Amino acid sequence: MVQTFSGTLDELLSDLATELKEMAENGHVLRVVGFTGAPGAGKSEAVTRLIKLLDGSVWGAQPLLAGIIPMDGFHKSNEVLQAEELSDYKGRPDTFDVVGYLMALDRAHDAKTVVYAPGYDRQLGQAIAARYKVEREGVVLTEGNYLALQDGAWALVREAIDLLIYLEAPPEATQTRLVARHTHHGRTPEQALAWVQRVDEPNRLLVQSSKERADRIWNLPA
After folding, report:
1. Which of 35, 12, 7, 31 is nearest to 211 (CA)?
2. Correct CATH for 3-170+210-219 of 3.40.140.20, 2.60.120.260, 3.40.50.300, 3.30.1180.10
3. In the chain, what are the helix, strand and coil shares in percent, each to the nearest 5?
4. For residue 188, is pLDDT > 60?
């Protein structure tokens, strides 16, 4: 059964980092820890802050953090999206290489296997190959909108994640963040709002429908 927690992001991340460290000290490391939630919920920020909390910790002789494999790195290229007539829907589940993402997560479970993962550059609007490297034992962090979906290969993605946390943020807060993000990357305020309403909002509803497949729900303040 999914567990629900409330608090600020910093409070919840601090508790999670302590839990992961204590588990590691007792010889049990959760290999893949994921964050999911609607667009603009704060998934990337959660991973960025958790990296800082885990990077200095020690599991045996190695840092507890093994690396990251973000879902956004598996965006299809703009050229492929154009060829598939999906450019106007970039960010939907079918605009990602979900099989490639799943394969990277599966390979990451073998701590002796080096995994190179792509990352997404928001300024370029494109994925960059082999941006991240996972090469040791420890915790692998991942994040993305669709980690709890039940459709097709996405359902297998959920099975490849040992602990999945759903970030629940107020819709008005996520919309404000998304409009700011889109304008920062070149859209006018009007274009940004239109994109949020046409693409991000349907995605939010889709993601929200799958949140009960997460292990934990974090209720975050606005």
Report:
1. 35
2. 3.40.50.300
3. 45, 25, 30
4. yes
